[in-house]
C-alpha cells in the first residue's frame, strides 16, 4: 500500500480490468488478519492507512454475515492491540515496544510511535477511531513513555 500510494495508484482497485483487488476491503474485514504478524501488522496497517489518507470500511459497506462482524477491523482495535504490547521491563521501566521479549526495540518503538503520532497530535482524531482500552490522556502518557524509552536506549553515536 505504501508503494502503490507513493506511485499514485488507487489501492482500492489494483490490477487488470475485471480482476481488481481492494486492499482496504481486505484490511477492513479481519482484525485477526491485522494481528497475524503480531504487533508489526497493526503498526504497518495504520501507517499505510494514514500515508494514503485511507479509511477502513465499516460493516455496513462490508455487508459481512453477523458471525463475522466481531472480526471487523478498526484503527481503534489496532491501537488497543499496540498499546497492549507495551513493555514492562524486569527493572520495572514501562514503555516501548518490541516484536518479542521484555526489552524495547528502537526500530519497533519508532514504528509504533509513527503509527500512533497522528492520534497523539489530535484528541479529535483519537476520539474518532475510538480505542476502547484507554482515555486520550492515558494514550498520551503511553506515547510519551515510548518517546522517553526511545531516547534512553539511543546510543551516543
Distance N terminus to C terminus? 33 Å
Would you count the extended β strands for me?
Answer: 0
- Helix/strand/pairing class, anyone? mainly alpha
Taken in chain order, the helices and strands follow as: HHHHHHHHH
Low-confidence stretches: none
> What's the tally of helices?
9
Morphology: globular
Biggest β-sheet description? none
β-strand amount? under 5%
- What fraction, in percent, of the residue positions are helical? 40-55%
Multimeric status of the protein: single chain
Q: How would you describe this structure in keywords?
A:
9 helices; mainly alpha; 157 residues; globular
Description of the structure:
Helix content is 52%, strand content 0%. The protein is mainly α. The two termini are 33 Å apart. The mean pLDDT is 90.
Summed up:
This protein has 157 residues and is mainly alpha-helical. The chain has helices at residues 2-6, 23-28, 31-34, 40-52, 59-62, 75-84, 106-120, 123-129, 136-153.
Layout of helices and strands, plus pairs?
Elements lengths: L1 H5 L16 H6 L2 H4 L5 H13 L6 H4 L12 H10 L21 H15 L2 H7 L6 H18 L4
Amino acid at each position: 500500500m505504501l508503494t502503490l500510494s507513493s506511485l499514485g495508484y488507487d489501492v482500492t482497485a489494483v490490477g487488470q480490468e475485471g480482476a481488481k483487488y481492494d486492499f482496504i476491503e481486505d484490511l477492513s474485514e479481519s482484525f485477526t488478519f491485522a494481528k497475524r504478524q503480531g504487533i508489526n501488522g497493526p503498526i504497518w496497517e495504520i501507517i499505510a492507512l494514514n500515508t494514503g489518507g485511507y479509511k477502513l470500511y465499516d460493516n455496513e459497506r462490508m455487508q459481512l454475515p453477523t458471525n463475522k462482524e466481531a472480526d471487523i477491523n478498526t484503527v481503534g482495535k489496532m491501537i488497543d492491540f499496540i498499546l497492549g504490547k507495551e513493555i514492562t521491563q524486569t527493572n520495572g521501566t514501562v514503555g516501548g515496544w518490541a516484536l518479542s521479549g521484555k526489552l524495547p526495540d528502537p526500530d519497533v518503538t519508532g514504528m509504533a510511535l509513527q503509527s500512533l503520532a497522528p492520534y497523539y497530535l489530535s484528541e479529535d482524531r483519537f476520539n474518532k477511531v475510538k480505542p476502547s482500552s484507554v482515555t486520550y490522556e492515558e494514550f498520551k502518557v503511553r506515547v510519551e513513555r515510548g518517546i522517553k524509552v526511545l531516547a534512553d536506549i539511543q546510543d551516543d553515536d
